[in-house]
Specification:
- By secondary structure, the chain is α+β, with helices and mostly antiparallel strands.
- It has two domains: 94 residues, FAD/NAD(P)-binding domain (3-Layer(bba) Sandwich), CATH 3.50.50.60; 152 residues, Glucose Oxidase, domain 3, CATH 3.30.560.
- The chain contains seven helices and 14 strands.
- It has a five-stranded antiparallel beta sheet with strand order 9-10-11-8-14. A three-stranded antiparallel beta sheet has the order 3-4-5. Strands 1-2 form a two-stranded antiparallel ribbon.
- Helix 4 links the parallel strand 6 and strand 7.
- Helix 5 packs antiparallel against helix 6.
Length: 263
């Protein structure tokens, strides 16, 4: 069952249409939605497309346009902060000032290492990388997670807030998954000579914002990445990079690889 939920078949990642039946489903491409139709509060009757066509809902409307387009479509439909909507001549139907705010992602740092013995065939692109089972699985199958030193993180959080952070702060509770690590047996160029170490920042305090560029649904929304804008995030990424370096500087790591590129 887990393979189906994660769009995998026999361990290999696949597109959703290969994992789920599309029987009875009509897929329309390329098609842009202008808005969901909300004649009254908390009641949606259908969807209007950019070309003016309207599709009435017989049961429900499922809005699943991703972390960028979903808030854009909500705001185009009149759901959002009044000031944001007024700038683009959109009448507010639902007062929801948090629409488009608090977006976050688990960005990280990547370090590439050159294999000392690529002829063994332990990386993608090598002539020895031939077993079909090597294509199975997902990076999450081999994640290793880690916390970070509590007092240093507390100091970083205090620097961000400008005040002392209490000991019961949610990022200081133990255990917490502050960092995730994994190694991929691939690099660029994909020639079998490189492997890559990742340190991913989890639970980041930094937040992004999505806003409208215009009332035209064909225009891409604006967004402020705001990545690594907090000292807490920067501290954890520095810690993660040092741990990746420490791993590859073990006797086993040094025997099999050497540093090739930057983060």
């Amino acid at each position: 069952m887990a393979d189906i939920v994660e769009s995998r078949i026999k361990g290999k990642r696949v597109v959703a249409s290969a994992a789920y039946s599309l029987e009875g489903v009509t897929v329309m491409t390329p098609t842009i939605a202008r808005r969901v139709i909300i004649p009254s509060l908390n009641f949606v009757t259908g969807v209007e497309l950019a070309d003016g066509r309207i599709f009435a809902a017989r049961r429900e409307v499922i809005l699943s346009a991703g972390s960028i387009r979903t808030p854009q479509l909500l705001m185009l439909s009149g759901i959002g902060a009044a000031k944001e909507l007024e700038k683009h001549g959109i009448g507010q139907i639902v007062d929801a000032p948090e629409v488009g705010r608090n977006l976050w992602d688990h960005l990280g740092l990547i370090v590439t290492y050159k294999l000392r013995h690529p002829e063994i065939g332990t990386a993608v692109g090598s002539p020895g990388w031939v077993d079909p089972l090597f294509q199975n699985g997902n990076p999450i199958d081999w994640f290793t997670t880690s916390s970070v030193p509590r007092e240093a993180l507390k100091a970083a959080l205090s620097q961000d807030s400008g005040t002392d952070i209490p000991d019961d702060h949610h990022l200081l509770s133990s255990p917490r998954c502050h960092l995730a690590f994994f190694v991929q047996y691939v690099g660029r160029p994909i020639d079998g000579t490189l492997i890559t170490g990742y340190a991913l920042n989890k639970l980041p305090p930094s937040r992004r914002r999505v806003s409208l560029a215009s009332s035209d649904p064909g225009d891409k929304p604006k967004f402020d990445n705001n990545h690594f804008s907090t000292e807490a995030d920067r501290y954890r990424l520095r810690t993660g990079l040092r741990l990746v370096s420490k791993m590859f500087n073990t006797p086993v790591g040094e025997r099999n690889s050497c540093w090739e590129g930057g983060a």
